[in-house]
């Protein structure tokens, strides 16, 4: 019968293959390259070397928003700015930040007044994921504090996609 081989349709085979890929991605990885682990180590070192800063202390992201230093901008509106990460951890790696920090150095500093901007950051992640063609899925990450591997104290959402993500994260 057309589409059947060994009693299994090509659609079933594809479904099983996709499930195996997702299942494998949840297993501990033994195949990460040395450049991956070097990059992860340097990210961690950067995070541990960066002390959580004062609420109003400027960061490199202020210079990016003000276009004092260049960035690869993918989205901008009156409240939100998004640009490609300089050290991408996936084929698509975009940072989404509020234009006005308003004390939000990190998620742990969120107050009720930040409800709207926090929602906008996530909603913008969804818009950009669509814009980037990440139709099969993507990941959003907010690192917080030294143990969360945060290195820039201006809240930002990482949007990652374009490859199969693994679980658990490092
Ligand atoms: P986090 O470690 O969660 O605080 O993320 C900070 C991110 O900012 C890292 O992924 C860096 O690669 C990224 N980053 C730092 N400087 C720049 C820059 N000038 N342009 C783009 N991304 C940057």
UniProtKB/TrEMBL annotation:
SUPFAM superfamilies tied to this protein: HIT-like
Q: Where is the active site?
A: 156 (tele-amp-histidine intermediate)
Q: Where is this region: Disordered?
A: 27-51
State the Gene3D superfamilies in the record.
HIT-like
Which is one Pfam family of this protein?
HIT
Domain HIT: where? 60-170
Gene Ontology terms, MF aspect:
adenylylsulfatase activity
Domain of life of the organism in this record? Eukaryota
The molecule here is called 14 kDa zinc-binding protein
